[in-house]
């Protein structure tokens, strides 16, 4: 219990403390021959926990540094204006994670059904069904987004085939007259 309290006070997410304690006892189990006997075992366990916490911090630091590099790379490859702006991307973001993943593997990564089946650990038939259903849900979500956009003044011009960039700018120009 004291080891858990020690870990809770040193992690940002309290749930991670249980992992630290588990890892500490795993190290103790693997190195059982080195664990001191009697009352010396307790401070030895705290020392192991301290090292486990250091490893957790290093891992978190590496993970966040990698995420920062990936974000910068995505902006370089895609461009900041294209990130998350389209109605399709908004609709995709509203779907369940499983639907998003299968759609991305199909459309963005251009994997075939057999390849998606391997990546997701599914049968080819299950991929076909899930992909069909995910596409249907995406289309429904997209229609919902477009219906909610119909309340905006510029959507009527968009529906008539006008260029979307001009349509978005037009209300600002008309209001300035």
Automatic annotation (TrEMBL):
Domain RNA polymerase sigma factor 70 region 4 type per the UniProt entry, residue ranges: 87-138
Family: Belongs to the sigma-70 factor family. ECF subfamily.
Taxonomic superkingdom: Bacteria
InterPro entries: RNA_pol_sigma-70-like, RNA_pol_sigma-70_dom, RNA_pol_sigma70_r2, RNA_pol_sigma70_r4_t2, RNA_pol_sigma_r2, RNA_pol_sigma_r3/r4-like, WH-like_DNA-bd_sf
GO MF terms, alphabetically ordered: DNA binding; sigma factor activity
Gene3D superfamilies per the UniProt record, alphabetical: 1.10.1740.10, Winged helix-like DNA-binding domain superfamily/Winged helix DNA-binding domain
Taxonomic lineage: Bacteria, Bacillati, Actinomycetota, Actinomycetes, Micrococcales
Keywords (A to Z) from UniProt: Sigma factor, Transcription, Transcription regulation
Protein name: RNA polymerase ECF family sigma subunit
Occurrences of domain RNA polymerase sigma-70 region (ranges): 3-61
One of the GO biological process terms: DNA-templated transcription initiation
């Amino acid at each position: 219990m004291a080891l858990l309290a020690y870990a809770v006070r040193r992690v940002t997410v309290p749930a991670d403390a249980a992992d630290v304690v588990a890892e500490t006892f795993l190290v103790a189990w693997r190195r059982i021959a080195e664990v001191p006997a009697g009352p010396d075992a307790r401070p030895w366990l705290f020392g192991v926990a301290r090292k486990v916490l250091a490893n957790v911090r290093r891992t978190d630091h590496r993970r966040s540094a990698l995420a920062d590099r990936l974000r910068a790379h995505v902006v370089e490859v895609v461009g900041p204006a294209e990130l998350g702006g389209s109605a399709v991307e908004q609709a995709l973001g509203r779907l369940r994670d499983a639907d998003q993943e299968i759609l991305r593997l199909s459309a963005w990564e251009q994997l075939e059904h057999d390849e998606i089946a391997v990546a997701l650990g599914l049968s080819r038939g299950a991929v076909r069904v899930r992909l069909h259903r995910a596409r249907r849900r995406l289309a429904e979500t997209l229609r919902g987004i477009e219906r909610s956009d119909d309340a905006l003044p510029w959507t009527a011009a968009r529906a008539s085939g006008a260029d979307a960039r001009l349509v978005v700018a037009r209300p600002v120009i008309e209001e300035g007259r």
